[in-house]
Amino acid sequence: MTTFYDELAEAQLAGGTLSRDDALAILRSPDEDLLALVAAGARLRRAAFGNDVKVNYLVNLKSGLCPEDCGYCSQRLGSKSDILKYSWLSEQETTKQAGIGIAAGASRICLVASGRGPSNRDIDRVTGMVDRLKTDHPQVEVCVCLGLLKEGQAERLRDAGADAYNHNLNTSESRYDDICSTHGFDDRVQTVGMAQEAGLSACSGLIVGMGESDEELVDAMFALRDLGGDSIPVNFLMPFDGTPLEDTWLLTPAHCIRILALARFACPTTEVRMAGGREMHLRSLQPLGLHLANSLFLGDYLTSEGQEAKADLDLIRDNGFRVLGAEDEGADTGHGDKALALRQRGAGTTIAPNA
Length: 355
Prior knowledge:
Helix content is 43%, strand content 13%.
């Protein structure tokens, strides 16, 4: 029997655009429709990406001490969160950490630094890291996340070999001032545009579970669709102690699946990534999430731990998917968990979700 969600999938496969009413229907679908919703969304995911899963790996270049007051972030101004705080990693340490992620199966390395935005000296430092990574691992994509960009900085990152720039919208324009007061929604949109104009692939997503309404969530998702980015990371709020959103637990596993389905139906050919907090909020429904999302982070995040890399890789294989590039590049997917454990002990840094 053809369901409402099958009809939505057919419309998207035919080149249609998801309407606001249909987007809200996805978010408000009953629990008994969950498998039908996932099955329909999985058709879109497989049509665009087959059974591949892109594995991403975060390297936290600089942690804490951020002057911005984003309410969700453990690195924010005035945060009381118990996290590691350190200045820039060396180029050698950055390359070492990235190499561990690549050996475990990652085809994209994400270089992330806390702060409002980079100085030109910071860009000098990061372009050196990018150049080194692309020289040592030319097949690997490098995505950079440094905050708000200034004129000419995106071009310098591109010239050094960076493939993508991450800057999340995080929430809807109407709700943004409730989340952050030190910069605005338009500042984020402008930075994504600067990256695109420089020829970098735009990676921009959102954080869900911050008290947004269904209407605000649709607004945020449609704003991401309008940006035309190449990837959408969906972060699930991790309510860090010592932040304004501590003890904010508003998500259920089923609703997280509906949010991933919304991303897939709204942007059927865009990379959708299960990002920070998926282990905490999707829990036993992570396998269903992979039938909608085609990308995830391996191991830890910026200031919080994820699940073991082996569990991530088993999740992919056990559900009939393959790690993108694993066969071609000979990724060592059998020892990813051991490698990540060694990194955590040796580097003295952990990695964060809501970048």
